[in-house]
Amino acid sequence: RVNFTFGKWSLFSLSLVPPEIPIIDQAYSKLSNSITVEWAAVPGATSYLLTAQDGESFIETIVTNSPGTVTGLKAATLYKITIRATNSGGRSLPSLSKKTILMPCRRNMANGICNRIF
Question: Domain Fibronectin type-III, which positions (predicted)?
């Protein structure tokens, strides 16, 4: 971390080291077009990059804290989910991935969670 000061005034602080790799606690879906990911906060991270990859393409979403949701996904598709922590020093390596299949669902009115149709 580098602090830039002028006299007694601190202008700003800049981290030159990327944050540690986040660990995905869980990934789940409430809708058939999105996946929500939960993880523990990483010290020094200012944002997180969630990536859902289906083999052909990927969708990325930037969020500031957990949980984060990746939207615009296709139902009945297997996705590999990863997360990277970011700060002014760069991006961490990607987390270990979680693989999940986004199945069509029927919404449970009691809790809003998707009931999978296999």
Answer: 18-105
